[in-house]
Automatic annotation (TrEMBL):
Wall-associated receptor kinase galacturonan-binding domain residues: 29-89
Catalytic activity: L-seryl-[protein] + ATP = O-phospho-L-seryl-[protein] + ADP + H(+); L-threonyl-[protein] + ATP = O-phospho-L-threonyl-[protein] + ADP + H(+)
EC numbers for this chain: 2.7.11.1
Full protein name: non-specific serine/threonine protein kinase
PANTHER family: EGF-LIKE DOMAIN-CONTAINING PROTEIN (PTHR33355:SF10), WALL-ASSOCIATED RECEPTOR KINASE CARBOXY-TERMINAL PROTEIN-RELATED (PTHR33355)
Organism annotation: Heracleum sosnowskyi
Bilayer topology annotation: Single-pass membrane protein
Length: 297
């Protein structure tokens, strides 16, 4: 057996360490998307967050986006304490801008539901052909809207907006829908409803009579799981500076750590060499073993 001196061993070991950066990557799952914080159950990419939400919330070009069958919508903010996300629809009408729209829908199997504060005002609907109107005694010119009568004031105030008033649309063609009226599919197809536009809002900012300051957009609720309990493993992962995620064909839980490695529990504390080697993948351990072993040949 050929022995080598300690300086040669150190040299070999130093060269081996030079290869470590090629194996160690930065944290794959980020904690922000642009300037917006991203927390569980959402994620910034594949394998991040909860797999049930990954299809619907994505981070693209530093913009957090909500995706449904009707399009992609910017997420303006997320209230993690109350589990509500707020999105905007560039195609909806507001007090400052009126335009045609195809509507807004939630996928039937999406883990979201409309927040109770969300209100939809359907605009410029055809009284004669829209299914939201029904005739009285078979007379088409005498109809009652299948709308929420409590929201009549919303139509009144919207009609006072300059952008909407220019269209010279009768108030009778405005119909306020609450989420429950959309049915189990949560589908607001304006083409089928024979309406040209809609306005969505989730708050009045304490100024019910001033539509210019209303909160336009859509508010959606979400739950973590059936019991709506924050997962214990995720809580432990986040306390160790990790980001909750998943991997494998069964979408098993994983904790994505700042070192770039995934664990099944949480990230290791500290930056000592002992903890660092515990994070080394099998490829690196095998590589080092071969290098050290070759020194004794």
């Amino acid at each position: 057996m050929k022995l080598i001196n300690s300086s040669t061993i150190i040299q070999y070991f130093s060269i081996s360490l030079m290869f470590l950066p090629s194996f160690i990557s930065s944290q794959t799952c980020q904690k922000t998307c642009g300037t917006q914080p991203v927390k569980y159950p959402f994620g910034t990419g594949l394998g991040c967050g909860d797999p049930h939400f990954q299809t619907y919330v994505n981070c693209n070009n530093d913009q957090l986006t909500f995706i449904t069958k009707t399009g992609c919508y910017p997420i303006t903010s997320i209230d993690y304490s109350n589990q509500v996300i707020y999105i905007s629809d560039p195609s909806m009408s507001t007090c400052s801008c009126t335009q045609q729209s195809k509507g807004f829908s939630l996928d039937w199997n999406a883990p979201f539901s409309f927040h109770d504060d969300t209100v939809f005002a359907l605009l410029d609907c055809s009284i004669s052909s829209s299914p939201i109107y029904k005739s009285i005694n078979g007379e088409n010119n005498s109809s009652l809207p299948l709308c929420d009568y409590q929201g009549t004031s919303v139509c009144d105030h919207l009609s006072s907006c300059q952008a909407i008033s220019r269209l010279d649309i009768p108030i009778s063609t405005c119909c306020v829908y609450t989420p429950v009226d959309l049915g189990p599919s949560f589908d607001m197809n304006l083409e089928k409803l024979r309406c040209n536009s809609y306005s969505g809002l989730y708050g009045f900012s304490g100024q019910e009579n001033n539509p210019e300051n209303w909160k336009y957009g859509v508010a959606l609720k979400y739950k973590f799981n059936f019991d709506n309990k924050y997962p214990t493993l995720c809580d432990q992962c986040e306390k160790s500076s990790g980001v909750c995620g998943y991997n494998g064909p069964s979408n098993l839980f994983s904790c994505n750590c700042p070192s770039g490695f995934n664990t099944t529990i949480d990230c290791f504390d500290g930056q000592s060499w002992s903890s660092a080697f515990r994070l080394l993948p099998l490829e690196i351990i095998t590589f080092l073993a071969c290098c050290i072993g070759s020194m004794w040949l």
